TrEMBL record:
It comes from Sutcliffiella tianshenii. GO terms for molecular function: indole-3-glycerol-phosphate synthase activity. It comes from the Bacteria. The gene is trpC. The lineage of its organism: Bacteria, Bacillati, Bacillota, Bacilli, Bacillales. Keywords: Amino-acid biosynthesis, Aromatic amino acid biosynthesis, Decarboxylase, Lyase, Tryptophan biosynthesis. This is Indole-3-glycerol phosphate synthase. It catalyses: 1-(2-carboxyphenylamino)-1-deoxy-D-ribulose 5-phosphate + H(+) = (1S,2R)-1-C-(indol-3-yl)glycerol 3-phosphate + CO2 + H2O. PANTHER family: INDOLE-3-GLYCEROL-PHOSPHATE SYNTHASE, TRYPTOPHAN BIOSYNTHESIS PROTEIN.
Length: 254
């Protein structure tokens, strides 16, 4: 699947023309995640579908979900912009950026400089770079280009092997441990525990995927995660804000 997605991205990039730059107020993704009001920062994701789970939310309305997230006090919003596999769009991101005052992370499979420039132009505050689909050289190049364009970067990694390797090239400011193996779709929050001790203390550790309950949140926080990235649990709850409150232990789990 991952190989297939990257192939699709190559085709998309070869047909990509840069859109005009939208004028938006930038927010620091990095600073937002260090919310002093709680022990774990929250990046709340919106995604209509995923290759592993199919449709997650039939009545998917990005502006509405963004409003829920902002009202309930999440620290940042992640918007899936991949169309083919996640049923998202760049337009979703632009709408969310326009209607909220939160930092917005562009969640996509970025393999080329053009996509980095595009992300800045559509108003993203941060981008995801997946170490498992990039060489060290490419990852570092795209990372630097993003920073030069004023974007924060969430560098995602799944295996210890890939993590150790990339740390020999550079130390990202934010590292996300994806608890989901994108090749097998197996999800296990223990991945965060296994990798946490190898991540430099100066790096902000984000635990991504498979965090469904308050217990999961407490667990990854005890492993050293300073922030979490959660999507599915919020898409499947009665409303995204109820999902957020449940995750923080303010309501019982259904
Ligand atoms: O829906 P979940 O299990 O809470 O996971 C959210 C997020 O971590 C996941 O969507 C994700 C993490 N890395 C990715 C890379 C591409 C697409 C999606 C992702």
């Amino acid at each position: 699947m991952l190989t297939k997605i990257v192939e699709t991205k190559r085709k998309e990039v070869s047909a990509l023309t840069l859109p005009p730059k939208v004028l938006v107020r930038k927010h620091s993704f990095y600073e937002a995640l260090q919310n002093p009001n709680r022990t774990v920062g929250l990046i709340a994701e919106m995604k209509k579908a995923s290759p592993s789970k199919g449709i997650l939310k039939e009545s998917f309305a990005p502006i509405d979900i963004g409003a829920h997230y902002e009202k309930v006090g999440v620290d940042a919003i992640s918007v899936l912009t991949d169309q083919q596999y996640f049923k998202g769009s760049k337009h979703d991101l632009m709408m969310v950026k326009e209607t909220t005052n939160l930092p917005v992370l562009r969640k996509d499979f970025i393999i080329d400089s053009l996509q980095v420039q595009e992300s800045a132009r559509i108003g993203a505050d941060a981008i995801l770079l997946i170490a498992e689909i990039l060489t060290d050289e490419k990852l570092f190049q795209l990372y630097q280009e993003a920073v030069e364009s004023g974007l924060d970067v969430l560098v995602e990694v799944h295996s210890l092997e890939r993590l150790s390797q990339l740390l020999q090239t550079f130390t990202p400011a934010i590292i996300g441990v994806n608890n989901r193996n994108l090749k097998t779709f197996e999800t296990d929050i223990e991945s965060t525990r296994k990798l946490a001790s190898y991540i430099p203390s100066s790096t902000l550790l984000v635990s991504e995927s498979g965090i469904l309950t308050h217990e999961d949140l407490t667990m990854v926080s005890s492993y050293g995660a300073k922030a979490v990235l959660v999507g599915e649990a919020f898409m499947k709850d009665i409303s995204p804000s109820i999902g957020v409150r449940r995750l923080f232990g303010e309501l019982e789990h259904a």
